[in-house]
């Protein structure tokens, strides 16, 4: 039964598309619906539209067979047992999650429902959303025994989305009825029983050695809160280490040593203790704001989250001050920038701190040559090239004749630059690294002035003159 369950996924953005092809990989038949006709046509033709490891391979394996893409939600509703809603829940002006896309989908399901369905919140939504979906269904005349609403939050990260989906730490199912919980248990059975991991056709590097994930059954409200609380806690961890990194800079201590010393305590753990230029992306900024807003509406003081946001904002300004401290004045300076995406291995630029920094540099009168392995096309759409902004063809092209090179995204390829080439390309050998990709002593050996986050700066003598390369 689990092998041939018919599932609908509504929304074929990041989460919807990854969920659709991964459900197919788990053995299910999937209809993936989007109201963007252009997107549906591209997906039918095999274009994923996003840069994500393993996604093209899975899309091509299953498109138009086990995964059908369409715009017709009514048909998808009628044919499926479980309908996963994975549409956007962007931040509204007040900080709340804008749930209008979720509501529109619920209304459309209500119009076409013909037998018992489990409606699954896969989008990140605030507590009580399941009750609102229920109300929308009932207001549209759907009998209460024709549906259940379940919360099944998604924890995948961009850049490792397929691997995260097929090999999650936990699968949270918030359901208030045993009937709906049983349907979700069946959907995820290939993972939770471990059966999927014995498949001979596993994608190399994704799931070869896997302990089956824990299936955690909770109430719907608890599941909704688990998602917001998890993202807010991870954001808090990042802001905490960023604040600690500032303290390290003020005392000439080294945040990497401090983070390692903290992370070895198993109660703290080593992950999400990388300092940088602040968190970004389509999730943390909006989800922290939405969680804060939920607390406010419930009359609960959660000003800790306001502090998390404040530290995150100030981290970008602090990085700009670091650039100023290395270059004295900024007007007219030529800056090479490595990285536009909000993190490495993705072309997503939503709420990217790198883009914010490029905007700040341009506002200061700098000219910028920026390079990113995958995100230039998307960036050009919101920030076209101009007399002061050029998109470079490589890291070395971005560095050519620049007064300083900034590393703003943690792409793996930026951690393995040819430092001798880079030194030759730059007008002054100054690297300001917002992601701590290099060992300061190695940069010093190569003759760079090297500033990073929360670690003592490396300054060769006569650091503002071009230095001979020593390696
Ligand atoms: N991006 C992530 O890494 C991630 C991870 C976990 C959870 N989430 C959550 O998942 C949700 C989706 O995020 P995303 O990044 O995939 O969003 P996205 O913007 O990439 O995709 C949303 C898709 O929904 C489609 N859509 C909107 N209204 C529709 C409708 N009425 N019918 C059919 N399709 C419709 C849009 O055309 C779009 O393709 C959000 O709530 C987000 O917070 C995202
Ligand atoms: O130690 C760290 C870890 C991350 N970041 C930054 O934090 C942001 C978010 O990174 P990450 O969490 O890896 O990426 P996302 O794809 O945004 O994933 C987060 O948001 C998703 C959407 O809700 C959740 O599903 C994931 O579990 C959650 O990790 C990025 O700007 C990173 O550069 C740091 O600065 N330091």
List the helices and strands and how they pair.
Layout: E1 6-10, H1 14-25, E2 29-33, H2 37-44, H3 55-62, E3 67-70, H4 73-79, E4 82-85, H5 100-112, E5 117-121, H6 129-139, E6 147-151, H7 161-166, E7 170-174, H8 178-192, E8 214-218, H9 220-251, H10 255-263, H11 284-297, H12 303-327, E9 334-338, H13 353-363, E10 367-371, H14 376-382, E11 389-391, H15 395-399, E12 404-407, H16 419-425, E13 430-433, H17 440-445, E14 449-451
Parallel strand pairs: 1-2, 1-4, 2-3, 4-5, 5-6, 7-8, 9-10, 9-12, 10-11, 12-13, 13-14
Helix pairs in contact: 1-3, 4-5, 5-6, 9-11, 9-12, 11-12, 12-13
The structure holds nicotinamide-adenine-dinucleotide and uridine-5'-diphosphate-glucose.
Uridine-5'-diphosphate-glucose binds next to α9 and α11.
Family: Belongs to the UDP-glucose/GDP-mannose dehydrogenase family.
Enzyme class: oxidoreductase
Protein name: UDP-glucose 6-dehydrogenase
């Amino acid at each position: 039964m689990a092998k041939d369950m018919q599932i609908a996924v509504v929304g074929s953005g990041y989460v919807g598309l990854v969920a659709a092809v991964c459900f197919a990989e788990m053995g299910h038949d999937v209809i993936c619906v989007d109201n963007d006709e252009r997107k549906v046509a591209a997906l039918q033709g095999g274009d994923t539209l996003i840069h994500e490891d393993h996604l093209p391979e899975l899309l091509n394996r299953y498109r138009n067979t086990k995964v059908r893409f369409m715009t017709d939600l009514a048909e998808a509703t009628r044919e499926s047992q479980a309908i996963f809603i994975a549409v956007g829940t962007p931040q509204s002006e007040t900080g709340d999650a804008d749930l209008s896309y979720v509501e529109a989908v619920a209304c459309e399901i209500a119009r076409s429902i013909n037998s018992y369905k489990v409606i699954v919140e896969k989008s990140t939504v605030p507590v009580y959303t399941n009750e609102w979906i229920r109300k929308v269904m009932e207001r549209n005349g759907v009998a209460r025994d024709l549906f259940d609403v379940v919360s099944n939050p998604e924890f995948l990260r961009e850049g490792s989305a397929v691997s995260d989906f097929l090999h999650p730490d936990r699968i949270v199912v918030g359901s208030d009825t045993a009937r709906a919980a049983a349907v979700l248990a069946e959907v995820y059975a290939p993972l939770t029983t471990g059966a999927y991991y014995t498949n001979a056709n596993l994608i190399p590097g994704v799931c070869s050695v896997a302990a089956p994930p824990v299936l955690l059954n909770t109430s719907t409200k608890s599941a909704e809160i688990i998602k917001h609380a998890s993202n807010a806690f991870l954001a808090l961890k990042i802001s905490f280490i960023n604040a600690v990194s500032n303290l390290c800079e003020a005392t000439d201590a080294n945040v990497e040593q401090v983070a390692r010393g903290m992370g070895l305590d198993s109660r703290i753990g080593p992950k999400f203790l990388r300092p940088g230029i602040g968190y970004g992306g389509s999730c943390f900024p909006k989800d922290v704001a939405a969680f804060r807003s939920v607390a406010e509406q419930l009359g609960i003081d959660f000003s800790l989250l306001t502090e998390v946001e404040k530290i995150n904002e100030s981290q970008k300004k602090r990085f700009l001050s670091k650039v100023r401290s290395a270059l004295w004045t900024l007007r007219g300076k030529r800056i090479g920038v490595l990285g536009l995406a909000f993190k490495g291995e993705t072309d997503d630029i939503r709420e990217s701190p790198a883009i914010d920094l490029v905007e700040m540099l341009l506002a200061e009168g700098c000219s910028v040559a920026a390079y990113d392995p995958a995100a230039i096309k998307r960036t050009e759409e919101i920030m076209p090239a101009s007399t002061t902004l050029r998109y470079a063809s490589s890291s070395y092209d971005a560095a050519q004749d620049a007064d300083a090179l900034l590393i703003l995204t943690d792409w793996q390829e930026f951690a393995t630059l040819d430092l001798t080439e880079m030194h030759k390309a730059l007008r002054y050998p100054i690297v300001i690294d917002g992601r701590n990709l290099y060992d300061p002593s190695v940069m010093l050996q190569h003759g760079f002035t090297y500033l990073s986050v929360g670690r003592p700066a490396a300054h060769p003598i006569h650091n503002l003159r071009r230095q001979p390369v020593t390696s």
